[in-house]
Amino acid sequence: MLYDQAFLSKDQDELIEAQAGGHVYSYPAAVNIKNSVGREMMVTLLGRSGTHIQFTRPDGEEFVYPISSLDLAAQTLISKYPNDGIKNAVAHVDQESLEPIDNKTLADHHLTGMNEARMDLREELRLLRNYHLPAAETKSEKNTVIKDIKAIELKIRKVELKIAEHQSYLKR
Question: Which end is more exposed in the chain, N or C (fewer Cβ atoms within 10 Å of the end residue's Cβ)?
């Protein structure tokens, strides 16, 4: 990336700045970010990779955090900053894999995600049974909805098996 920047012409620099809305995004940068559950924090952004951001909190503690765990607005903002990588990434990744995230382990987050997927599927199933099936007018429409119901029921069973498998693995 630095190699490409070294050979940008003045016109290309102006084009990049114009695309960024006239704002040059660089590090360190004070930004207000919000995670996907709504927790908001003012941080000093130090860098980013394709999947993580590196920042310090106002108390000076440094973190590496997954971009996918930010809300959409924060992800959009972060994507405007250069992807220059993370300093000492190995140290942060090793530490991060051992420490809980928000007092939850990665396994807890995985289990929470599977439970949310199951709830979403159950809601989809409820809508199909209570609204789509009664609204179907022709036999082919009813058959299509019935097939969709069976497919959703199968997906729910698969997720429930994955949850049970995951829970039995955690008990070992």
Answer: C
What's 105's DSSP letter?
Answer: -
CA distances to 36, 98, 102, 112, 128 from 105, in Å: 17, 9, 8, 11, 35
Neighbours of 158 (CB within 10 A): 13
* pTM exceeds 0.70 for this model: no
What CATH homologous superfamily does 2-98 map to?
SLA1 homology domain 1 (2.30.30.700)
Which stretch of DSSP H or E encloses residue 67? Answer: none
Domains of the chain, residue spans: 2-98, 106-171
What amino acid occupies position 120?
D
